[in-house]
Inverse folding.
């Protein structure tokens, strides 16, 4: 009777901590005791491990098995510890080589037949194992592709507990089984949505390119049928491919959320469009013992689109203020703080009033002025403060439809090329600063002597400031957007024209 | 006698021989009272062991030890107390379990666990 030892990973948010699994067999009546703050799913590991061990022909101890998950004070959740617990128990029994299992991190849930089930969160868990200096990780065969996305660690995919025991030197004959593969849900290919499908509204198409180039948050205001959703869902297509680090982060969050990850890292920015009944927890993430990522974390490095924004709970919208400010979502609970990345581009869409017709050229608004004002007031000032582009979109007319048939329309590929050129211009200009996108640059930097624009260029802006038509914060926002417009146009510095265009891009609410 | 009872009797005899060979002195066998029956009472040096014997002919329905449940435990404690009340004296006592796996036509295998309760 000895002690078997191996390792697994406990996830809190995207951060993984290495957990040592110790198993001790003592001369007592049969019983399995799991200690070290397991949650309900982990507490049930006893039954899965026992049945899987017996059914895969490995046998299970007839004595008392004590499993300790260390550090003992760290709360652990989920079923990913099953494989480690089973192997540590076998090592305590002398059925597998202790040295062999001690060097490996084991992640996987056991089925009662002894096969290994894929689990969510394998990618961040393997990443944590690699960062902790482990050289080998054993995962369910169904997660092997996902785990192999992490560089610098050897991934062993096993289909069953029996295979795992054989790999660790157990004397058993291999028994081929059908590995359990996670279901792959076919997701709509968003990149097939092309910008060229948007008819009319050339201003809005240009505005989406400005938003993509500068990373600016966007607010679209317009009557139903004006194409707000159409525009917003085409924004991710305009963004450049993800950098390797960002791709890993996006795939990690997908893995944690239980979404299929596949055999390659996500290369395209994600789009999340939660329904307006979403709660704050659905939006930023939540949960008591097992903290899960919300829509904002899943939209990291991509676009978070909130359609019918005023219909959202105001608490849900205001919960976005922290990630908008810091790019990090922290979720505080009594026993832990989970952190998720939250660098998304926010797109809000709203009708101008409850009936939706206010300001439309072709129909009459039936709302009382009071209810109209109340409607948009649901979007709090601090939230709108962080949105650089505020654009009014109109329903297109028959004349515009005819005109657009003749006119050449910008395709997504063309727009993305423009956006990438503008982004590289901005990042080379901002190379010496901590920022890389215009949207992140503070106004004080843009007004500093090196960046300040000629007074003749900023004259209309200065006049607006003097008249009180523009606040200082609004002034900075216009400057930021003007730089992006200039980058898109290939200009060194914004001209009066670029500034005028930037002013136009924030007039939805003031007009 | 039913076959399972026969197996149980045989198992108890095997267990008793095993314990005697291990140096224990059998003090009492199949002691009955209102609360139930103690399979074996044996003296191990100065310590008195109340022994529950479980016998199986195969492992198809689990190991014999797995049949010793929490309820069985509690009954063994009550029975030990009853035995001590019926045999006044000062003893250091413990409760043991013996598993006998006796396949037909093969040598039985025996396992003895001390202080299980």
């Amino acid at each position: 009777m000895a002690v078997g030892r191996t390792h697994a990973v406990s996830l809190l948010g995207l951060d993984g901590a290495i957990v040592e699994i110790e198993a001790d067999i003592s001369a007592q009546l049969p019983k399995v005791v799991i200690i070290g703050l397991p949650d309900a799913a982990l507490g049930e590991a006893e039954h899965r491990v026992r049945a899987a061990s017996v059914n895969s022909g490995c046998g299970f101890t007839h004595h008392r098995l004590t499993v300790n998950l260390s550090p003992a004070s760290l709360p652990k959740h989920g079923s990913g510890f099953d494989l480690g617990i089973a192997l540590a128990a076998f090592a305590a029994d002398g059925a597998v080589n202790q040295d062999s299992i001690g060097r490996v991190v084991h992640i996987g849930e056991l089925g009662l037949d002894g096969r290994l089930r894929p689990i969510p969160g394998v990618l961040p868990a393997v990443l944590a194992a690699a960062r902790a200096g482990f050289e080998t990780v054993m995962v369910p065969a169904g997660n092997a592709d996902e785990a192999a996305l992490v560089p610098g660690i050897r991934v062993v995919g096993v289909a069953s507990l029996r295979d795992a025991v054989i790999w660790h030197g157990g004397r058993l004959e291999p028994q081929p089984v059908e590995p359990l593969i996670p279901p792959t849900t076919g997701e709509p290919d968003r990149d097939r949505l092309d910008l060229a499908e948007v008819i009319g509204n050339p201003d809005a198409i240009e505005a989406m390119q400005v938003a993509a180039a500068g990373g600016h948050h966007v607010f679209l205001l317009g009557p139903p049928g004006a194409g707000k959703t159409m525009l917003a869902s085409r924004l991710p297509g305009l963004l450049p491919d993800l950098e390797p680090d960002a791709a890993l982060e996006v795939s990690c969050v997908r893995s944690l959320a239980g979404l299929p990850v596949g055999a390659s890292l996500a290369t395209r920015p994600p789009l999340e469009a939660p329904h307006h009944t979403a709660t704050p927890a659905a939006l930023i993430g939540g949960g008591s013992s097992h903290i899960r990522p919300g829509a904002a974390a899943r939209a990291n490095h991509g676009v978070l689109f909130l359609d019918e924004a005023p219909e959202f709970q105001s608490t849900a919208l205001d919960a976005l203020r922290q990630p908008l400010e810091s790019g990090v979502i922290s979720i505080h609970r009594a026993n832990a703080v989970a952190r998720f990345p939250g660098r998304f581009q926010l797109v809000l869409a709203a009708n101008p009033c409850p009936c939706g017709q206010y300001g439309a050229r072709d129909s009459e608004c039936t709302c009382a002025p009071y209810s109209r004002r109340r409607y948009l007031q649901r979007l709090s000032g601090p939230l709108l403060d962080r949105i650089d582009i505020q654009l009014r979109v109109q329903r297109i007319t028959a004349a515009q439809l005819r005109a657009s048939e003749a006119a050449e329309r910008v395709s997504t590929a063309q727009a993305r090329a423009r956006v990438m050129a503008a982004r590289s211009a901005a990042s080379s200009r901002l190379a010496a600063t901590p920022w890389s996108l215009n949207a992140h640059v503070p106004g004080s930097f843009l007004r500093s002597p090196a960046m300040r624009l000629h007074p003749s260029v900023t004259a209309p802006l200065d006049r607006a400031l003097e008249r009180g038509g523009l606040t200082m914060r609004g002034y900075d926002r216009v400057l930021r957007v003007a730089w992006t417009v200039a980058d898109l146009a290939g200009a060194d510095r914004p001209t009066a024209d670029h500034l005028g265009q930037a002013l136009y891009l924030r007039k939805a609410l003031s007009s | 006698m039913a076959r399972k009872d026969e197996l149980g009797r045989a198992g108890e005899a095997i267990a008793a021989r095993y314990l005697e060979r291990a140096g224990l002195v059998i003090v009492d066998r199949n002691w009955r009272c209102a609360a139930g029956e103690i399979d074996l009472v044996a003296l191990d040096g100065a310590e008195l062991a109340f022994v529950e014997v479980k016998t199986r002919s195969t492992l198809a329905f689990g190991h014999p030890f797995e049949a010793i449940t929490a309820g069985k435990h509690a009954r063994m404690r009550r029975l030990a107390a009853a035995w001590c009340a019926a045999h006044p004296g000062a003893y250091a006592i413990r409760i043991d379990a013996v598993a006998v796996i006796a396949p037909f036509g093969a040598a039985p295998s025996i396992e003895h666990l001390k202080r299980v309760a």
